[in-house]
Design goal:
- The protein is an alpha/beta fold and about 325 residues long.
- It has a single domain, classed as Aldolase class I (TIM Barrel).
- Helices cover about 40% and strands about 20% of the residues.
- It contains 11 helices and 12 strands.
- Strands 1-4-5-8-9-10-11-12 form an 8-stranded parallel beta barrel, surrounded by 9 helices. It has a two-stranded antiparallel sheet with strand order 6-7.
- Helix 2 packs across helix 3, helix 4 crosses helix 5 and helix 10 packs across helix 11.
- The two termini are about 35 Å apart.
Length: about 325
């Protein structure tokens, strides 16, 4: 039987009923806010292509974390902009590195916020690639040893979760082995398991000063055409010890998030990346869209696809809007 017996509009006629039957209920409890930390004191420089996003010194990061806690945002992820770069990305795993100093500052401030750290060499190498380069080729096995050292240095500084984003083969196993051997078996790994070679990363590379100086990242980041390969990558990272897996970017890869949610009974994260953020901000500033409605719709779509954790530069606004109802 159909109309007039079935009238789906009955359940859409006012907000109280729509709220009662809503299938997906996004929450600030799953938000992670990305932060870019740079050397110095009192530094807060806006990223031109990402309005509202800043490169900040550790003291300013601590101030930001206090605001995030007040908004009910449970976690941050830190990206470092080092004082110096070299071919090996030495400051990535140095005890005095800018990320390591920032973690320690957050701990001294007795903040309860979860600290996640990006583990990759691209921000720290003078060539801008995610690993060691020899004759124009990234050396996988030599790179994962340095990534493990970087993760360990973050754990020693007080990180709760380390997040390898490099897409080298075997890096999760190398990091897990290194952390466990040093007594950090409780530090979790959030793996960028399905990270695509995407044009949506442009503004991030400005923010993190991480653009490659030659070539591209097609040899290690995934082909945007592939879904089954993403499931293979996730499987391998889980076998190596990943606790949480991520799909990046989010909006153009909602099908990948859904496929991962249906296949794996583990926490799934998604990164609403810089290009996705910048497009919304640009359109909103031109008066072409309703920013609040668009951002809430994007967040709902990512959650609906199956991501329980969303990394997004919109996190502060989302938290405010979700609280206001």
């Amino acid at each position: 039987m159909s109309f007039p017996t079935h009238r789906p509009r009955r359940l859409r006629r006012n907000e109280a009923i729509r709220g009662l039957v809503r299938e997906t209920r996004p929450s600030a409890a799953g938000l992670v806010y990305p932060l870019f930390v740079c050397p110095g004191m009192g530094v807060r420089v806006e990223v031109a292509s990402m309005p509202g996003v800043y490169q900040q010194s550790p003291d300013k990061i601590v101030e930001d974390c206090r605001e995030l806690e007040s908004l009910g945002i449970p976690a941050i992820i830190l990206f470092g902009i080092p004082e110096e770069k070299d071919a090996r990305g030495t400051e990535a795993y140095a005890a005095h590195g800018v990320v390591q100093r920032t973690i320690e500052a957050i701990r001294r401030a007795h903040l309860k916020i979860l600290v996640i750290t990006d583990v990759c060499l691209c921000e720290y190498t003078d060539h801008g690639h995610c690993g060691l380069v020899k004759d124009g080729v990234i050396e996988n096995d030599a790179t994962i040893e340095l990534l493990a050292e970087q993760a360990l240095s973050h754990a020693r500084a007080g990180a709760d979760i380390v997040a390898p984003s490099d897409m080298m083969d075997g890096r999760v196993a190398a990091i897990r082995k290194k952390l466990d051997a040093a007594g950090f078996s409780d530090v979790a790994i959030l793996s960028y398991a399905a990270k695509y070679s995407s044009a949506f990363y442009g503004p991030f590379r400005e923010a993190a000063h991480s653009a490659p100086q030659f070539g591209d990242r097609l040899s290690h980041q995934m082909d945007p055409a592939n879904v089954r390969e993403a499931l293979k990558e996730i499987t391998l990272d889980l076998e190596e010890g990943a606790d949480i897996v991520m799909v990046k970017p989010a909006l153009a890869y909602l099908d990948v998030i859904r496929a991962a949610r249906e296949r794996f009974d583990v926490p799934i994260a998604a990164y609403n990346v810089s290009g996705e953020y910048a497009m919304v901000k640009a359109a909103a500033r031109n008066g072409w869209i309703d920013e609040k409605r668009i951002v809430l719709e994007i967040f709902t779509a990512i959650a609906r696809a199956g991501a329980g954790i969303v990394l997004t530069y919109h996190a502060k606004d989302l938290a405010r809007w979700l609280k206001a109802g």
